[in-house]
Amino acid sequence: MIGIFDSGSGGLTVLKEIRQRLPGADVVYFGDIKNAPYGVKSPEELIALTAAAIELLKSRGATHIVSACNSVSAALAVSNAPTDMIEMIEPTVAAFKQSPAKILLMATPATINAEIYQNAFKAIGIGIETLAIPELAGAIEFGQSEADIEKIISDALAKVDCSSFDTLVLGCTHYPFARAAFQKVLPETTIVDPAIAVAEKVASSFAEEGGGSTAFLISKDSEPFRNRVQSLFGATTDMIAVLK
């Protein structure tokens, strides 16, 4: 069984791509909505939350783990992460090998400050620009309006020279839910969703075991989460369990 975790609904974008490639795999998904958003938390908090999420998924039968949250990547090396666990950054960066793209990475403060993406791109000879957006993941998670989300993106991009990049990497799994807003603000920019590269890595690394079941666990009830699960997967209420 594949276990996937995120601070909330962002990882559903990764699950969607995995499902397209491994429709027969059993999956358990954990969204830690009670502690969302992760992107503004300290490294120490992220380490504890990561360890707890992995243990929860293992207790529910997961034998393979996918971290669908960019912000926790810096915590993985010091948590109880399985050695074969797949996280967001390595597959994403590998997809850009020998690419001429001029890249801007937009992500949470935790992801940017950890410099995991910057170091990984540097290792393959690519320099990138970065831009942290502290409030965007939370705005998406808790269902703020499209107009509010577009304003957050526009205000953040006002701080950079948009002619200096031609490719935007969405360095938070929540951001694909706002892809239309990103594209509206940056109509000429190529937008890359790392969920695709991660799902391809999962499909090539983990066997398709089970009967295609999906279970959703959340640490706090959330109408936006339920709506997204219903929209993406047609899930019924009994497929989503709120942890006590």
Topology:
Blueprint: E1 2-6, H1 12-21, E2 27-31, H2 43-59, E3 64-67, H3 89-94, E4 103-107, H4 109-114, H5 116-123, E5 129-132, H6 136-141, H7 146-157, E6 167-170, H8 179-185, E7 190-192, H9 195-205, E8 214-218, H10 223-233, E9 240-242
Parallel strand pairs: 1-2, 1-3, 2-8, 4-5, 4-6, 6-7, 8-9
Helix pairs in contact: 1-9, 7-8
Structure write-up:
The protein is of the alpha/beta class. Helix 10 links the parallel strand 8 and strand 9. Helix 1 crosses helix 9 and helix 7 crosses helix 8. The two termini are 23 Å apart. The mean pLDDT is 94.
Characterize the largest beta sheet: strand count, sense, and whether it forms a barrel.
Answer: 5 strands, parallel
For the termini, the CA-CA separation is: 23 Å
Please count the beta strands (DSSP E, at least 2 residues each): 9
Global outline: globular
How much helicity do the residues have?
25-40%
Based on CA atoms alone, the radius of gyration comes out at 17 Å
Write the H/E string, N to C: EHEHEHEHHEHHEHEHEHE
Strand order of the largest sheet: 3-1-2-8-9
How many helices? The count is 10
Summing up helix and strand content along with how strands pair, one would put the structural category as alpha/beta
Mean pLDDT: 94
